[in-house]
Design brief:
The chain is 71% helix and 0% strand. The chain is mostly helical.
Length: 324
């Protein structure tokens, strides 16, 4: 059956349970409730029916149902899938069985048992299970209270094996923010941007990291201080931040967070530019650009809040930025 000629609602309406599962699997949809519902409708509540398919198709479906059951908090059903897979001839020493067993142990609260299996799976760097296990090890560490450092180490280990996973870089960026390391967070967000350069939120968060890095250090970045070198000046960082805020607004003109950020960032740039410590690195043209961008951001915000209860307060705040 060519699934490209069908859509999921039609398959569901036709009660084509097997192809509902196939469609969700082929197009990598996250529909655990549908998987469980149609899996049990096809194979029965106890998953004992043959389904009229060969062993390989049935085993694949059982594995899919097991993961779906775990997602919807039905660990007993997932364990039943494990039992059925064993009866189908899947070895308890196989990677697919151990990976599923570890997830079942997680669901039952046996974190240590799951960790042992995942750690064992990471020993084979030639299989996709290695990456999956590394990611689950991170999830286990993250779930522990007051365990931020160990969780980060687990995530970094995963990224070292799979550096193109932008979601992992994004996760690491927020972990770094939580620990106050905004320079490292900015680096992680830059890695994210390599795969999703048109995501406005990424540009905003990256700009905020540079701004926070400058503000929290009293005018110097988290890098080593060198007052004699303009390369270590805060102005280049604020220029980057300003560019990313402007880029976010270009990508999404309705992004209020980006408008406020551009207003604040441009204002911060002017403050740093006019200070004696940064005077040598200042550029009059960039000062003019900063003023123009503040006016542009202010105009966007005034239009956004026009006729709303916050209009007067926003107008005063914007005016304070422009006059400071």
């Amino acid at each position: 059956m060519d699934l490209n000629k069908w859509d999921l609602p039609t398959l569901i309406k036709n009660q084509d349970h097997l192809n509902v599962l196939r469609y969700i699997r082929v197009f990598e949809l996250r529909e655990p409730a549908l998987v469980v519902k149609h899996g049990q409708a096809w194979l029965g509540p106890d998953l004992s029916k043959s389904g009229g398919v060969n062993q390989i198709v049935r085993q694949t479906a059982l594995e899919q149902i097991a993961f779906g059951a775990l997602d919807v908090k039905q660990p007993k059903l997932a364990e039943l899938c494990l039992d059925r897979l064993k009866k189908e001839g899947i070895s308890s020493d196989s990677i697919r069985f151990r990976r599923l067993l570890a997830r079942c142990l997680e669901a039952s609260g046996d974190q240590k048992g799951a960790e042992l299996i995942y750690t064992d799976l990471t020993q084979d760097s030639e299989t996709p299970a290695n990456l999956s296990a590394l990611k689950r090890l991170y999830a286990l560490e993250k779930a522990q209270p007051n365990n931020e450092v160990a969780a980060q180490e687990a995530l970094v280990k995963y990224i070292s094996k799979h550096p193109t996973d932008s979601s992992a870089w994004y996760e690491l960026a927020h972990a770094k923010m939580a620990l106050g390391d905004f320079t490292a967070a900015a680096y992680c967000l830059e890695e994210c941007m390599l795969s999703t350069p048109l995501e406005a939120t990424l540009h905003v968060e990256l700009a905020e990291c540079w701004m926070t890095s400058v503000s929290s250090s009293g005018g110097s970045s988290n890098k080593k201080d060198d007052s004699n070198s303009s390369n270590n000046s805060t102005l280049p960082l604020l220029l980057q931040a300003r560019q990313h805020m402007a880029q976010a607004l270009e990508l999404d003109p309705t992004n209020t967070r980006a408008a406020w950020g551009l207003l604040q960032c441009s204002n911060l740039y002017l403050q740093q530019s006019s200070s004696a410590a940064q005077g040598a690195a200042a550029d009059p043209f960039q000062d003019e650009v900063a003023v123009a961008l503040m006016e542009h951001a202010g105009s966007i915000l005034m239009k956004k809040y026009k006729g709303q209860p916050m209009e007067a307060a926003v107008k005063r705040l914007v005016q304070e930025f422009l006059e400071s």
